Amino acid sequence: MIKNQEFSLSCPFPIQNYPHVLLAHGGGGRFMHQLIEKMFLAGFENPVLLQRHDAAILNRPSARIAFTTDSYVISPLFFPGGNIGDLAVNGTVNDLAMAGARPLYLSSGFILEEGLAMDTLWRVIDSMRKACQKAGVFIVTGDTKVVGKGKGDGIFINTAGIGVIEHDLTIGPLAVRDGDAIIVNGDLGAHGMAIMAQRESLSFESAIESDTAPLADMVLDLIAHKINVHCLRDLTRGGLASALNEIVMVSKTKMQIVENAIPVREDVASACEMLGLDPLYVANEGRMVAFVPADEADQTVDVMRRHPQGQGACIIGHVSLSDQPLVVMKSKIGAHRIIDMISGEQLPRIC
Amino acid sequence: MIKNQEFSLSCPFPIQNYPHVLLAHGGGGRFMHQLIEKMFLAGFENPVLLQRHDAAILNRPSARIAFTTDSYVISPLFFPGGNIGDLAVNGTVNDLAMAGARPLYLSSGFILEEGLAMDTLWRVIDSMRKACQKAGVFIVTGDTKVVGKGKGDGIFINTAGIGVIEHDLTIGPLAVRDGDAIIVNGDLGAHGMAIMAQRESLSFESAIESDTAPLADMVLDLIAHKINVHCLRDLTRGGLASALNEIVMVSKTKMQIVENAIPVREDVASACEMLGLDPLYVANEGRMVAFVPADEADQTVDVMRRHPQGQGACIIGHVSLSDQPLVVMKSKIGAHRIIDMISGEQLPRIC
């Protein structure tokens, strides 16, 4: 069996006999056993998972560990550039990366809706397998539940992740300092607009693909290059604007960003304009913001640009001291505008 | 603020202003921020969680670690003896305990349905807080998603857990040996029948309460008493019958159990009979099976009985060598019956 990340695996589950998920597939008996064996274990095969114990047993980690979780409830399940499966791997890998950790192990908890096509499930599992290989992580423990028709929405996935922190930096909002450069690794808003286009059946001249990608390699490379990384945050729900607002609230700083410096692809900008959305608030799944000392900003951008996930890296602003936490943007016409946290929600179920 | 496990906390979230979960509570903006701050952080408060980073940073563990995950989709959310919240804590604590690990940290991922009463959410959070205190674990990282009305079912919770393995035993199905005693820690089927009674609005003479409970203390005590524990399994979905069948398939052994020795409360037995269910297949949430060398069986029962969760501990059978994996029960009238894995599902969404 070729298990390369480039090739899809053929599914050992007898889809022709059981084309849809039944309640019995979550009932603890033969049906569930077969589903776990021929779907999940077949897709995610690795020595730890194959112990098939209630919990995975892992060697004593070599350092401090990072631990995170995220549930994925995206609609539609498949979208240009990805699907809920690779999203569930990359998202949790990225949460670990944002702590400066090397991602090692994932858990996966599936909540399946009765009637889900088994073929859909396999495509998701196969994507997760490829995403794990790409990110260098293993799914070592898992769980499956089935809910009745109309009590779920196809597939929900929770992944939790464990990584090791192999350096002494303290990366987080409290480490943000006066003068820090604010750097993003690429253009914003593609993931959110890929979902919206799919959901609203909009067709743009060029298809907008999600930016979903694992960011850990790039982050570890920054650390290997001795960049004094102060804070990292991936730009998911709520986009850049929400991430910066969350950080100023904890760090008690002011951030000034420059609209002209913020990369947004033209087709994404047009799509946003058409739908009345602001790309600063749109979700991404392969984009992050980094806070580093000003004199290390250029090197940070250089290191990022050497990675496929950082080719659009650029400096978008800087941090200054302030009496009140605030994000301010210098607009294209030179005016200053406060970038607030979004009040309600701009795009539901986008990640 | 009194944070004792015996007392309920009052909720700092302004429930009177926002009595129900809105889609905006999952959107990444102000609403979500308030929900996280005044519900989740208020309920689960601890120093690691309050770092509020994408991932929790934990000290280097002292030993091998165990890692597990489980999603909870139970209906109804509240039932005699518990609710989805304490179940989500105890269930994952128990999965760690079954690996012989000391549970330390949990993650919690919530999938909320739009329209859920905030008061319901708080009651669940408060139960989780109490259950964590009782089990000695901390929720150190979390995530919240909101799905539209009719796309979920009130509350789904995923918990993942990390524990440390402070001994050298290899506990698992492959360690089961010829002659091992099979021991349960108490009467079977109460959890499943408590759910069924609630769901079907059945009223029995005495209310049947769920057996939901954390089992880690009792397991660690067995290990502290130098019992050579071979295998442990908690008896959740599919009950005792499914657990034994799963283990014989991996261990390639035969198990003989004695119906007269298997403890089932009279009211649970009557309720099962009334509904045409077999208590061997009914879910439990505070029951486990242990495999230990025959000459350590009595001491195992003694140690278990000193714990509130093990007062009904007893030996129910033994393991023997076999050409084919099989679970056989000597019935009350002396006949031998094969106890098979259940084919479909006996009780949906029971845990």
Written account of the structure:
Two copies of one chain form a homodimer. With 351 residues, the first copy, chain A, is α+β, with helices and mostly antiparallel strands. The first copy, chain A, folds into two domains: 23-165, 60s Ribosomal Protein L30, Chain: A, CATH 3.30.1330.10; 173-338, Phosphoribosyl-aminoimidazole Synthetase, Chain A, domain 2 (Alpha-Beta Complex). Helix content of chain A is 28%, strand content 24%. Chain A has eight helices and 14 strands. Chain A has helices at 30-44, 84-97, 118-135, 190-199, 216-224, 239-251, 266-275, 297-305, and strands spanning 56-58, 64-72, 78-79, 82-83, 102-113, 138-147, 155-165, 181-184, 231-234, 253-258, 288-292, 314-321, 326-330, 336-338. In chain A, the strands form three sheets. Chain A has a seven-stranded mixed β-sheet. In chain A, strands 2-7-5-6 form a four-stranded mixed β-sheet. Chain A has a two-stranded antiparallel sheet with strand order 3-4. Chain A is globular, with a radius of gyration of 21 Å. In chain A, 58% of the residues are buried.
Label this structure with key terms:
Phosphoribosyl-aminoimidazole Synthetase, Chain A, domain 2, 24% strand, homodimer, alpha+beta, 4-stranded mixed beta sheet, 2 domains
CATH class assignment of the largest domain in chain A: Alpha Beta
Count of extended strands of chain A: 14
The CATH level-2 architecture of the largest domain in chain A is identified as Alpha-Beta Complex
Strand order of the largest sheet of chain A: 9-11-8-12-10-13-14
Structural class of the helix and strand makeup of chain A?
A: alpha+beta
Percentage of residues in strands of chain A: 15-25%
Average pLDDT of chain A works out at 93
Which regions of chain A contain 5 or more consecutive residues with pLDDT less than 50?
A: none
Largest sheet of chain A: 7 strands, mixed
The run of helices and strands of chain A is: HEEEEHEHEEEHHEHEHEHEEE
> What name goes with the CATH superfamily of the largest domain in chain A?
PurM-like C-terminal domain
